[in-house]
Amino acid sequence: MASHSDVMLDKLDAPFRDYLPFDPSTLRVQRLNSGASNAAELANMDAFCARILDGYTLGRYLNAKRGIAATAAGIETLLARAGVKPTGRILEFGAGTCKLSAVLSRSPDVVSVDCMDFSEVLLREIAPRVISWLGGDLAKFRFLVGDMNRIDEVQDRYDWIVCFGAVHHLTVPEHFFVRLRERLLPGGQVLCLDEPAFPEITLPFEAIRRYRTAIHTARVAGENEHAYKLSEYRRFAGPGYAFRDLALTPGERRIRTFSTGPFQTNFVLTPAGA
User: What is the 3-state secondary structure (H, E, C) of the chain?
Assistant: First the structure.
């Protein structure tokens, strides 16, 4: 059976700005005190948003749509295999285009979704369109404009706090996860997906060299990029959480130790004693 994302692939044959299946005046957007602490990174993101809205030729845009749809389908498959089902009140930090939140919001067991990102353009212009296109329930969403490194500015508490490729953008992950625990309701958990990681035994393979070079280039441009090993993600979580690696097969686990290139890692954190 085709996934919802597959079925939606033929829905957008016009520029993304022309796809408006919602009333923009109904969007709930709240500005937190911090805004964006990295001006260069914010400028890069807003320029990226402008290219998405207006700059794609049809061929390039169709490829971008397939990428979004494939990512959403991959999220569905991974969570189903791992038996992970976020429910209740959800916060996504570093939410970006909100693909993860869009998938989670389809569940009737999800009551509300708050999405936090530093780019208001991204949250107002891109995310609602992606959520609508992927079949998310936009009525459940509130968008928080702020710096995820200052997670303590979020006043509410949540059953699940989630992210998709955001942890490696944090300035000081160890401090972040300590503060994040204060934003969880009793029994709450943290889900982190699609974090880039290096193998524990790092040899000078070409793919690893290229990835290190890309990170260096991004940091020179002012972006907050880092590369970590899986053991470092465990260390960031610290003793305050039980760490569950969502690698399910022996082959997936072996790649954590030795690989010719970087890989994506996914994990769930449960507060110790919960």
Answer: CCCHHHHHHHHCCCCHHHCCCCCHHHCCEEECCCCCCCHHHHHHHHHHHHHHHHHCCHHHHHHHHHHHHHHHHHHHHHHHHHCCCCCEEEEEECCCCCHHHHHHHCCCCEEEEEEEECCHHHHHHHHHHHHHHCCCCHHHEEEEECCHHHHHHCCCCEEEEEEECCHHHCCCHHHHHHHHHCCEEEEEEEEEEEEEEECCECCCCHHHHHHHHHHHHHHHCCCCCCCEEHHHHHHHHHHHEEEEECCCCHHHHHCCCECCCCEEEEEEEEECCC
97, two tokens:
């285009």
10 located within any domain = no
pLDDT digits 0-9 by tens, 199-212: 776 666 666 667 66
Instruction: Please indicate, yes or no, if residue 90 is contained in any of the structural domains.
Output: yes
Q: Residue 200: inside a domain, yes or no?
A: yes
CATH number of the domain where residue 171 is located: 3.40.50.150
User: What contacts 132, CB < 8 A, 6 or more positions away?
Assistant: 19, 21, 22, 138
pLDDT tens for 139-198 read 999 999 999 999 999 999 999 999 999 999 898 999 999 999 999 999 999 999 999 887
Asked whether residue 4 is assigned to any structural domain, the reply reads: no
Q: Print the domain residue range for 241.
A: 26-271
Confidence (pTM) = 0.85
Give how many domains the chain has, as a whole number: 1
pLDDT tens-digit series, residues 106-144: 999 999 999 999 888 889 988 998 898 889 999 999 999
